[in-house]
Each structure stands twice: as structure tokens, then as C-alpha cells.
Specification:
It is a single chain. This protein has helices spanning about 105, 110-115, and strands at about 5, 10-15, 20-25, 35-40, 45-50, 60, 70-75, 80-85, 90-100, 120, 125-130. The chain has about 130 residues and is mostly beta strands. The strands form 2 sheets. Strands 2, 4, 5, 6, 9, 10 and 11 form a 7-stranded mixed β-sheet that branches. The longest helix has 5 residues, at about 110-115. The protein is globular and about 40 Å long. The model has no long low-confidence stretch (mean pLDDT about 95).
């Protein structure tokens, strides 16, 4: 049974850093796109970052580009999101996700998946709160 478990959320002041980690079970990070999404109260879900199955291609949402870095650890079967220069507008619940379609990587790149509406496996989410 596929399971995604996020860790590393918390509260930080503006300008600070946090690192989120998603550990996957029964789903190899090297098999498909894996990424992070977030949802703030009253806002639409937003694609934050994703990394390709090979770990060599990354895509970011415009609001986080240059501040966040996503990486893959195939040995630990995990994906991490390093978040620097955090802003109050980064406050949200952050979710790790991976496509249910095992062949999605053949049909589109991970950047397209990040902004699409594909059916995904989701973690339970971890809260990130940035105070000014």
C-alpha cells in the first residue's frame, strides 16, 4: 500500500529556513515524478516543486523559485524540500504527492504534472507557519 509521510514542518520567522522531507513506501522515488504542493486557507492548491524520476530535472512554482530547492535521495526513498528566505505568504499546509499513473513520466514532464490535475497519492500534510 502506497504511503507518503511528510516531516519537518513548523513555525519560523520571516527570513528563516525549514526543511521538509517526504518518505515514500511502496512507491520508488526513481519511478516517477514526486513533488510538493501547498494550500493556504482560502486559497487554491499550488504546485511548489517537483523532481524527475532520475533526480536530474527540477521544476518550481514561480513564487518559490530561487528560494526553495527540491532533492531526491534514492537510498532513503525520500524527497526533501529545502525552504530558505521564508515569507509570511509561504504559510500553508504542505503536501507531498506522487502520480497514481505509473506511466505518467512517459506522457509529460514533471513540470506539467505540477500544474496539472492528475490523480495523485497524497501525504497527510505538514504545517508551515511563517511569522513577520
Amino acid at each position: 500500500q502506497v504511503h507518503l509521510a511528510e516531516s519537518g514542518g513548523g513555525s519560523v520567522q520571516a527570513g528563516g529556513s525549514l526543511r521538509l522531507t517526504c518518505t515514500l513506501s511502496d512507491y520508488a522515488v526513481t519511478s516517477n515524478c514526486v513533488g510538493w504542493f501547498r494550500r493556504a486557507p482560502g486559497k487554491e492548491r499550488e504546485g511548489v516543486a517537483t523532481v524527475s524520476r532520475g533526480g536530474d530535472s527540477t521544476y518550481y512554482g514561480a513564487s518559490v523559485k530561487g528560494r526553495f530547492t527540491i532533492s531526491q535521495d534514492s537510498a532513503k526513498n525520500s524527497v526533501s524540500l529545502q525552504m530558505n528566505s521564508l515569507k509570511p505568504e509561504d504559510t500553508a499546509m504542505y503536501y507531498c504527492a506522487a502520480p497514481r499513473d505509473p506511466a505518467l513520466w512517459k506522457r509529460r514532464n514533471c513540470g506539467q504534472w505540477l500544474v496539472g490535475l492528475d490523480s495523485n497519492y497524497w501525504g497527510q500534510g505538514t504545517q508551515v507557519t511563517v511569522s513577520s
